[in-house]
Amino acid sequence: MTFDEPLPAMAFTGIAGLDEILNGGLTPERMYLIEGTPGTGKTTLGLSFLLAGAVVGDAGLYITLAETEVELRAVGKSHGWSLDKLQLFEMVPADGFTEDHEQTLLHPSEVELGETVRNIMAKVDEVGPQRVVLDSLSELRLLAQSPIRYRRQILALKHFFSTRACTVLVLDDKGASGSDLQLTALRTG
Fold it and tell me: Taking all residues of the chain, what is their mean pLDDT, rounded to a whole number?
């Protein structure tokens, strides 16, 4: 991009005051970390972002690793929102952990982490959204069980999303691990 080219249209968040502070919204086709303690409105911001996109014709995908679709719809209902225009992808196991999930030669976290990341990527490729919310990194952190594995998976996701034409909000619980230097390095690097 040269200095003479027009700026890309911003990705509105749907929150007027925030869009004003951000000079019209978020720069599209980037990955953003939304971090906060439980109950601070991360899910609400994510849903608002996707719904604002739906208004301008952007397909939206909410990938949840911790909440159920019923819980997400309840959040939407509490704000008077219909989530019918959004794709909601619940990755919470419906049947819990059965013996089939427990018996393997590999440590369960090794299988589950790779499978979870592959499922995220497959769903994004299937839907082809312009806007994605990934909720939440704390679940990936738990599956990784080591900072290096966690960092590698986050870098893999960051690279994956950089090759897709979508704007991504990644939600994380600030209280999940205290000061997370791995994630901080990705934000500032």
Answer: 84
How big is the chain, counted in residues? 189
* In the block, residue with structure tokens 């069980």: 145
Helix (H) or strand (E) segment spanning residue 31: strand 31-36
DSSP character for 173?
A: E
- 8-state DSSP, 37: -
| 33 alpha carbon, distance to own chain's centre | 8
pLDDT less than 50: residues of the chain: 1, 97-108, 178-179, 181-182, 184-189
- Could you give the count of Cα atoms lying within 13 Å of 101 in the half-sphere of its Cβ? 9
Exposure string over 124-140, b if 16+ CB within 10 A, otherwise e: beebebbbbbbbbbbbb
**What is the value of pTM for the model shown?**
0.83
**Nearest one of 20, 28, 21 to 1, comparing CA atoms:** 28
